[in-house]
């Protein structure tokens, strides 16, 4: 019985979450089950008919209640969201303990480390329980302790970004 792989998409560029979602679609196309847990995204991906259409192969979860991004919340709302985020991390532990999926994506989990919502030891313990499940971590900043845990690390940077007019 082998260990699942740990992949990281980090950097200040755009495209980390889409890269992880691309891996989710590849896994689903092979008949594998995928669980995505989004953190610090505000509204994140909408609970739309399209997202529901990806089930049962790809299941998306958000535990945060606010539609605003974390940095824009009052201190009281941040405290509430920290409890919700910890519930999301507990759910991730349950997913790995039960072997519920072949791929677990923790979208923006590295940001939880930056904001001291979780500790590196918490993330390491979670990853140690992965069994054969592959795990993808995304976020802007990558510290050495987390980098050492990974089998693959991709640094994503934006070289050019052009906005297009709405319409």
Question: Could you write a compact summary of the structure shown?
Answer:
With 167 residues, the chain is α/β, with parallel strands linked by helices. The chain has helices at 16-29, 49-53, 75-98, 109-114, 120-128, 144-149; strands spanning 6-10, 34-38, 58-62, 103-107, 134-139, 152-155.
Topology at a glance:
Layout: E1 6-10, H1 16-29, E2 34-38, H2 49-53, E3 58-62, H3 75-98, E4 103-107, H4 109-114, H5 120-128, E5 134-139, H6 144-149, E6 152-155
Describe this structure in words.
This protein has helices at residues 16-29, 49-53, 75-98, 109-114, 120-128, 144-149, and strands at residues 6-10, 34-38, 58-62, 103-107, 134-139, 152-155. It is α/β, with parallel strands linked by helices and 167 residues long. The protein has one domain: P-loop containing nucleotide triphosphate hydrolases (Rossmann fold). The longest helix is centred in the middle third of the chain and has 24 residues, at 75-98. The chain starts with 5 loop residues before the first strand and ends in a 12-residue tail after the last strand. 30% of the residues are buried. The model has no long low-confidence stretch (mean pLDDT 90).
């Amino acid at each position: 019985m082998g260990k699942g792989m740990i992949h990281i998409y980090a950097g200040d560029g755009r495209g980390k979450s889409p890269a992880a979602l691309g891996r989710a679609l590849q896994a689903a196309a092979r008949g594998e089950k995928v669980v995505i847990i989004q953190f610090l995204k505000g509204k994140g991906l909408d609970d739309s008919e399209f997202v529901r259409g990806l089930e049962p192969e790809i299941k998306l979860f958000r535990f945060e209640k606010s539609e605003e991004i974390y940095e824009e919340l009052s201190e009281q709302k941040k405290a509430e969201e920290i409890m919700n985020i910890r519930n999301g991390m507990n759910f991730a532990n349950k997913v790995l303990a039960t072997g519920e999926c072949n791929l677990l994506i923790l979208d923006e989990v590295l940001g939880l480390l930056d904001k001291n919502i979780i500790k590196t030891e918490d993330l390491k313990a979670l990853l140690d329980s992965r069994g054969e499940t592959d795990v993808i971590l995304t976020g802007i900043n990558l510290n050495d302790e987390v980098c050492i845990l990974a089998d693959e690390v991709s640094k994503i940077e934006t070289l050019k970004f052009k906005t297009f007019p709405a319409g």
